[in-house]
Amino acid sequence: MSLTTAQNTTLQTDINAQGSLVIARAAHDAPAVANFYNALSATAIWRSDLTNSQVVAACVMTEVVALNTTAGAQLAFQTLIHPPIVDATSANVRAAFSTLFSGKTTLTNLTAVAQRLGTRLEVLLGAGGPPAVSQVFGYLLQPADVAIAMGW
After folding, report:
1. What is the pLDDT of residues 76-102, one digit of tens each?
2. Which tens digit of pLDDT belongs to each residue from 5-59?
3. Less Cβ crowding at N or C end of the chain, within 10 Å?
4. CA separation, residue 79 to residues 63, 74, 115 (Å)
5. Whole-number Å distance between alpha carbons of 50 and 29
């Protein structure tokens, strides 16, 4: 993956605004800048890589069984977790979980497991939130990316 022109522009602007990167910028130290952006931030992002087992582990089974009393709810839940990976960056997936488990412990658990702290890059190139939906979920910024963004 490589960053888009717009993402490179956003990254360049942010690098130039970071006081803690003054020395790295002056030295054209792309690895130091990349390490800065690959560090975890304090901001949550939605995950796009939830496994079925993580979703099931987050569920209170009595609440899942209770879905049988609602026409179509059990089928809707099964459909959501059928793919091996559940993408919580999708507003539709989050809305479905909310609809199925409104006011339940399972919704609290699913919301927690569907998020993680984002790297500075993921948060910078994210939208909404917090938690944000990152355009570069799981991407580690490379020194070459920094060099391109900065024109070094």
Report:
1. 888 888 889 999 999 999 999 999 999
2. 999 999 999 999 999 999 999 999 999 999 999 999 999 999 999 999 999 999 9
3. N
4. 17, 9, 21
5. 35
CA distance 131 to 78: 25
Q: Half-sphere exposure of 68 toward its Cβ, with a 13 Å CA cutoff?
A: 5
DSSP code of residue 141: P
For residue 117, count other CB atoms closer than 10 A to its CB.
Answer: 13
Helix (H) or strand (E) holding 85: strand 85-86
What is the rounded distance in angstroms from the CA atom of residue 116 to the CA atom of residue 42? 10
Residue linked to tokens 């993402």: 7
Q: Which DSSP letter does residue 139 get?
A: P
Task: List the beta strands (DSSP E) in the chain.
Answer: 40-46, 50-51, 85-86, 115-119, 126-127, 133-134
